[in-house]
Amino acid sequence: MKNKIIITLCLLLFMTPVHAQEGGIKNLRETGKAFASVARTVSPSVVYIRSVGTINRQQIQGFQSPFGEGGPFNDELFKRFFGDQFQLPKTPQPQAPNNKPRAIGQGSGFVFESKDGLFSDKSYILTNNHVVKGADKIHVHLQDGRQFEAEIVGTDPQSDVAVLMIKVGGLPALTLGSSSSLEVGEWVIAIGSPFGLSHSLTVGVVSAKGRTSLGISDYEDFIQTDAAINPGNSGGPLVNIDGEVIGVNTAIFSRSGGYMGIGFAIPIDLAGGIAHQLMDNGEVIRGYLGIVIQDLTPELAKSFDLEQTQGILIAQVTDDSPAKKAGLKQGDVIVSYQGKPVSKVGHFRNQVSLTSPGSKEQLTIIRDSERRDISITIGTLGKDKMVAEATTQSTDELGLTVQTLTPQLAEQFNAKAGNGVVITQVRPGSIAASAGIQAGSVIVQVNRVPISNAEDFKREVKKSSDNKRILLLLRNGNTQHFVALNW
Predict the structure, then answer these.
(1) Can you name the CATH fold of 287-380?
(2) Neighbour tally for 314: CB within 10 Å
(3) Which listed residue (179, 200, 234, 353) is catalytic?
(4) What phi and psi values does residue 421 have, to the nearest 5 degrees?
(5) Annotated catalytic residue 198
(6) Catalytic residue from among 75, 156, 160, 456
(7) Catalytic residue at 456?
(8) May I ask the CATH architecture of the domain 392-486?
(9) Known active-site residue 144
(10) What mean pLDDT is predicted for residues 214-233?
């Protein structure tokens, strides 16, 4: 009996790895089939977009890419993805006196609404504004080989969203999912036309949510993903495992000039709302409060005697604005909007912008350590009105986050508006932290060049990226001192 038990245990030990291996292969097959099912469902709705525009002769100075006019590297999207540092060898090309040079752009998009009926055969395509910006003609290519010339229904450069229309009905429209319920770690799939290779599929996960202050667009709340995104993917859908669109692929981060595992997509909750406004009105009408806001860092929370860092800080209230009329004040901390917690500037700014002007909304604030509920009537954002976010810039090299000095901030930090930037955050362990730089200091000069705003600061830091050395002139109170940083 004892021998039988030993033999049985030995057989189980040898069989277990085999069963585990078979189970693992089965799971992989099922995962692969799930991705293939998404590809079959989504691909017919994804389009390849080719735009043609006219270049100002003075801008190109008689030079062209050696790859020719239609070459993949002649794409303006390359500059968007890889920055101004991406340069190709150029050779002089003669131009005919009366021939205007043409720019060829390429990108992706997807059908999100389609109408089929007598005199109403139309399909609407969502894409990025930068894919069609400046285009004289836009050609849309479907997976089945059909091509159509598209009309621009509306564009919104501030969010980098555009809607096109082609005169054909009955096309399958993708289902718009919910980006707000998306979680970090979920599978996502990108489909588009990288380098003109239409209907290419890549797979990854959601790496992060709520990425802001990237300098890609005015209204930012990006989904970060490691699904491979390259030039030409712009405007294509980022979908979940159910084939629902949860984002619009827009840009990548790269130091090498190639894909490095960091891509950004506009959340579909934001892009979809803007797209429908463009369809209905031809433009986007945004809500407006009339405040400048900033993230509530631990240093700022301490300065305002707050025990928490959840919420956003009001740095400025505009006169005769909805915020002023509702009684909001500088130094108030907004912790809730429309009954939902508020924690990030970018997300709150987008929420307000998508709120219908004239509607009454509830804000919960903290003032003098007390929570208060405030009712506010949303105004209409015009070009001459203040956007609801303080200008900030971050630098990975230095480990600093800085903000343009508003009149109120200048008064608080004993500085002069337009004369430097205030440091709002210092990353622990960074070279700035090692040099003893602290939040609240004002940077007056970078490499002996006076700076007046956050954009100036970022530009001057970028100039130092080659020699990896920078000289800062800091002001603390009434004293100034230089700090040299090397990395």
Answers:
(1) Pdz3 Domain (2.30.42)
(2) 24
(3) 234
(4) -130, 150
(5) no
(6) 160
(7) no
(8) Roll (2.30)
(9) no
(10) 84
